[in-house]
Write a structure and sequence with these properties.
- By secondary structure, the protein is mainly β.
- It is 0% helix and 59% strand.
- The protein contains no helices and eleven strands.
- Strands 2, 4, 5, 6, 9, 10 and 11 form a seven-stranded mixed β-sheet that branches. A four-stranded antiparallel β-sheet has the order 1-3-8-7, with no helix packed on it.
- It is elongated.
- The termini are far apart.
């Protein structure tokens, strides 16, 4: 089994910064892609940023230039550094990971519990 634990959410004023952390643990052989999704009331869950095992990154247009995703393969950890936060960034943020488990074929997607990010004056 695999667990993803998120931390770092909170309340911040517009223009502020937060860093989200997600650490995976359990019976892990390796992790393919990792990513951050977010969901706010009345909107579909959207992919914010993702990163491959080789370090290739991708971002939603709405966060380009403001957010940076990074990872440490040895620690099975991914971060999302968020700067110049805007009220429209308010959402529950979810970490995801495509995990190859020890002794198991293929891979499976796992999700963190979600962490609330609120951007408000």
């Amino acid at each position: 089994q695999v667990q993803l634990v998120e931390s770092g959410g909170g309340l911040v004023q517009p223009g502020g910064s937060l860093r989200l952390t997600c650490a995976a643990s359990g019976s892990i052989f390796s992790i393919n892609a990792m990513g951050w999704f977010r969901q706010s009331p009345g909107k579909q869950r959207e992919l914010v940023a993702d990163i491959t095992s080789g370090g290739t990154t991708g971002y939603a247009d709405s966060v380009k230039g403001r957010f940076i995703i990074s990872r440490d393969n040895a620690k099975n950890t991914v971060w999302l550094q968020m700067t110049n936060l805007k009220p429209e960034d308010t959402a529950v943020y979810y970490c995801s990971a495509d995990v190859r488990r020890l002794g198991a074929p293929g891979s499976n997607a796992y999700w963190g519990q979600g962490t609330q990010v609120t951007v408000s004056s």
